[in-house]
């Protein structure tokens, strides 16, 4: 496993990190989830990403149990706050109340005294950003988080938060966006702003929810048990890629993957890691062997001719509009 600095911070994260967005506590049984985490550890992954909202808080608890017995200093544990975790009006968003209550709940479920990175899971238009950043600063100063990050924020939002963080003398070091060959909306604005400010990207869905693995074929129903057939595992998110045009185009990547000596999934993960602003690519798994396969993308260098060939194949189906960042629309 190779490691990269998270932006310009001193924190190093594994090039490939393990995330449990749609698996732990929902799609697969706990024994399988634990096996996947242990496989990640065996493959050299040290960075683990979760969120309080995943599987209604169960994902954090599963990850906490899976990491018990590991040397805490040898791990980077990342979680997030924003989405509803309860029925009340204050059980969501980035208010001081919700942040303070959420970090305590996350630490309890993760069975740890601190997280390495605490991330604002989306931008909250209903709470003053000053209130949010001051609450994050207090979380950091209390020792409950070491660094602060955001997820799916737009460039202007990142700039404003960075300036407040600088004034508060805390470290805003990362953004967690969706990023893949098919979804490049961060490249025009978010990446340049992040490079300027010293933030790194921890990207999710580098395989486009599995579409870039090549297992979904045009004109054929999705394989039984795949993400596209399971409402609990993100079928709504993968739906935008499940067109014959996209699936036919993705099949054209197979000879390029073979040329590079990689599986389709490995090619997709290696591709996002070619971007120097990407600090880590998050992978998920329902089986340990998927983890072992994905990790082989670490340290892979794709040559310029191959990158150009990939661009030529996917150009007609690639989304690049920065307005498509998944931050909620302004009310």
TrEMBL record:
Gene Ontology biological-process entries: methylglyoxal catabolic process
Q: What CDD domains does this protein map onto?
A: Aldo_ket_red_shaker-like
Which Pfam family, just one, is annotated for this protein? Aldo_ket_red
Ranges for the NADP-dependent oxidoreductase domain? Answer: 15-314
Q: Which keywords does this Swiss-Prot/TrEMBL entry list?
A: NADP, Oxidoreductase
- Gene Ontology molecular functions: oxidoreductase activity
A Gene Ontology term for the protein's cellular component = cytosol
Q: Does the keyword NADP apply?
A: yes
PANTHER family assigned to the protein according to its UniProt record, in alphabetical order: HYPERKINETIC, ISOFORM M, L-GLYCERALDEHYDE 3-PHOSPHATE REDUCTASE
**To which protein family does this belong?**
Belongs to the shaker potassium channel beta subunit family.
- Identification of the protein by name: Aryl-alcohol dehydrogenase-like predicted oxidoreductase
Q: Which organism is it from?
A: Micromonospora pisi
